[in-house]
Fold this protein.
Amino acid sequence: MLSLFFVPEIGGSSQLTVTGDEAHHAVAVTRLGVGDEVLISDGAGNWASGTITSTEKKSFTLSISERGTAPASAPQLTLVQALPKSDRIKEALELLVEAGADRIIPWAASRSISKWQEDSLAKWQNTVQAATKQSRRYFIPAVENVYSTKDLIAQLSSSRILILHESAIQRISQVVDHSWSQSQEIFMIIGPEGGITPEELEDFQRAGALIVSMGEPVFRSAHAGVAALSAVQSLIGRW
């Protein structure tokens, strides 16, 4: 499997010089050199592959041999993640990206322990980009700024919405089927460690959300998203 690096723009030239942090990582950390093949992407679906023809301390030049554009996922899978404990954020985001989330919305739920900081958005975006490289995805999942419950509900109209909650009567497999593959977007809402409040559940249900379970074991907030994404993608026939 070729290493993937992100660039602002690929362009149409047969040669491309990659600079900055991505080039430093390739040359100094990954130890790639002349003759090695790599993948590059603009993070928006466009990609190219080729052979490194020269390297400097913080740059390398690529001779492009192949290029293309990956199709966007349909439906879009949006994962609403209640702010997890600070020591779980990186792990949660890595799992969400690897499991196929297309958009990630941080949610300041009533019982969230962590607080959204001034630099939180940049940290989440950096973690997501690194995880996208590791999982060889050509689209970097979008990370929104933090949402309140009110702001989140305003986003949910006319979409398929799932709340993963242990109080659910229906299993996820009883609700989601292949017909959901024709939806434009599927929201999955994951609560915080302390759980979603009854008031929040009622608000989401009024917005059209369906409460579903994923079996008897209770997931950590940081782990529930990967399970939800896996289940949905299997049920709609993507996996």
Notes: The chain has two domains: 3-69, 76-235.
